[in-house]
Amino acid sequence: MIDRLAAQGVLRANDRGGYTVPTDRLYPFQWNWDSAFVAMGFATFDAPRAWAEIESLLRGEWDDGLIPQIVFHAPSDDYFPGPDVWGIERDPRTSGITQPPVLATAARKVLESAPGSGSEARMAAIWPKLRDNHRWWARARDPQGTGLVTTLHPWETGMDNSPAWDAALDRVPTTTRNAIRRRDTGHVDPAFRPRAIDYQRFIHLVECFADAGWDPAGMLAASPLRVADVGTNAILLRAERDLAALATRFGTPAERTEIEGRIARMAPALETLWQDGFYLSRDLISGAAIPVRTSAGFLPLFAGESPHEAALAATLQAWAGMVRWLVPSTDPAHPQFEPLRYWRGPVWAVVNWMIADGLRGNGHDALARRVEGDTLTLIDAHGFSEYFDPTTGQGIGGATFSWTAAIALLLEGTR
Ligand code: GLC
Q: pTM (2 decimals)?
């Protein structure tokens, strides 16, 4: 049994006054997709606080509709790269890249879990910002209208050091102007974190975008890394569907038609990522499918009905035969699988929640229950850890993680 009060306590303890940090010290600001999950978690016991989470994230939205990966509401020396490395003069200060767009899905869920006039008014107030953000994705990241959006930085995928990005990252120079002063490895074991050379490339990309003046077209043209991430594209398609549902009440008929137009383009484009029996991200510089199966490849189930649900369920069952706990972030049969290192193998509760939702939506109830059950058992036994070893269940990384607590609350409600 999950201790609901303990889970709520993690969210309260990580609350910095209207926004929630992912965990104390290691991540001292507001992160984009973390906050979307956190809002859904708060909605299970405090709807006004859930709306506040979304509203504080949206205070960081740019005029062009970008919702940044990080909003630096208050200064902290505990994290690198801080606002000065990004060099973006806004109030509040922010980073200049984004993260998987879970927000419209979260807003819909908060609204549905706490219907009533307070929620209606708050949803109506944020509607223009959600709409503008989805327009930003289409305009800034898919200017040719291919139906797939481009990701420019591994941090944008939320799965920072996934082996899926290794080959694309290899082409990114390691030179940087800024001295790299990592703080994360002072808080947790370096063996479980991205490597030093990964960080040099991460910062090289940031500097490249700063040189492009944070202009979307300039960034797209200049970036030495460009991928169609299957995770981001699946999450965006799901979010567009949730946005379309919200549009019937909060938008205009023309806005709803516009969203449906994008969905009509995106749904078939996502299917083009089905390659060799799995959904794979695509390297948009080489044009080739990236031959690494990761947990993101199950997320088209979360986007809607997938024609490949049966094959995906069979693959997940095969993975269950190789590790004790679902869902490992990388195929356990892959040579780059590392059960303890961040996105190269460990189980992440938020990804499990999306995969389970997608399995259920595609008629795989028993497998959905297995994924949910594994998630709850891991949290029960090892706490609200950042991530978990799929072979032993050990909790790794930060110990009182907001999004893990949020998922515990969401799943416990359905058990
Ligand atoms: C790491 C994760 C990313 C998450 C952030 C804050 O960078 O890779 O997905 O949003 O930490 O928890």
A: 0.98
Average pLDDT, the chain: 96
Q: Measured between alpha carbons, how far is 43 from 150 in angstroms, rounded to an integer? A: 31
Query: Residue 116 has what pLDDT?
Result: 86
Q: Indicate whether residue 33 lines ligand 1 (CB < 6 A).
A: yes
Cβ-count burial 266-277 (b if 16+ within 10 Å, e if not) = bbebbeebbbee
Bond before 75 cis per omega within 30 degrees: no
pLDDT per residue over 86-142, tens digit each? 999 999 999 999 999 999 999 999 999 988 889 999 999 999 999 999 999 999 999
Give catalytic status of residue 240 as yes or no: no
CA angle 100, 329, 284 (to 5 degrees): 55
Q: Among 160, 283, 309, 372, which one carries the catalytic annotation?
A: 160
The Cα-based distances of 354 to 112, 267, 406 in angstroms read 17, 18, 13
Cα of 111 vs its chain's centroid, Å: 20
Q: Does the Cβ of 22 fall within 6 Å of ligand 1?
A: yes
Q: C-alpha 238: how far from its chain's center?
A: 13
Give the nearest ligand 1 atom to 69 CA: 10
3-state secondary structure of 217: helix
Dmax (CA) for the chain in angstroms is 53
Domain ranges for the chain = 308-415
